[in-house]
What does this fold into?
Amino acid sequence: MRQLRGQERAITGNRQTSWAFAEAYGVEHIDDTALRWARERAREAGLRSVSSGTGAALRLLAATADAKAVAEIGTGTGVSGIHLLHGMRPDGVLTTVDLEPERQQFARQAFRAAGFAGNRARFIPGRALDVLPRLADGGYDLVFCDADRAECLDYLAESLRLLRPGGLVCFEGVFADGRTVESAVQPTEVLRLRELLRAVRESTVLQPSLLPVGDGLLCAVKRG
It folds into this structure.
């Protein structure tokens, strides 16, 4: 029994080391000056930015989709947007929605500092569920959601309308710091995340995968 416990600790330690390595991998080849600035603005505002591993995954997914049009729900201070823009086509446009215009001003500065032209991003202030219905049906290659978790099921419905066949939808933070899988009573936002995970997995129009990066990145491809 003692030997088994020692093996369990070794496995856990190896997993933690592997997770840390994966989080750090693939970041060095981009200029992170703008990213550091955007992360600092986020910390000052009390916001949590996507992790390095999540950012690398977003770059990969945007590049895999050869994304020309991406919709982002939750601009923050621009950290996720920088990663998405790095993965998109050189002529791609990021449409990013946030309730707080001040955050979008930070993101605008961060994008400029990262070397992206002003016409690479379209900033729309406002509540996501008021803005998204005005965007074009089937006009997007990827939709990234990092906003109010209580509204995640509504974001899913809008994303399915916005995406072209073969497009990707991604939800950040679905682990909710481990609360999604805990048996204790959880707040509404965690219950909504559980419903989201179930809805995506059971959908007949989505091919899903849950990536263990950052705080959990739920991804799904819209079937053609």
Summary: The CA atoms of residues 23 and 53 lie 4 Å apart. The first strand starts at residue 69 and ends at 73. The chain has one domain: 31-222.
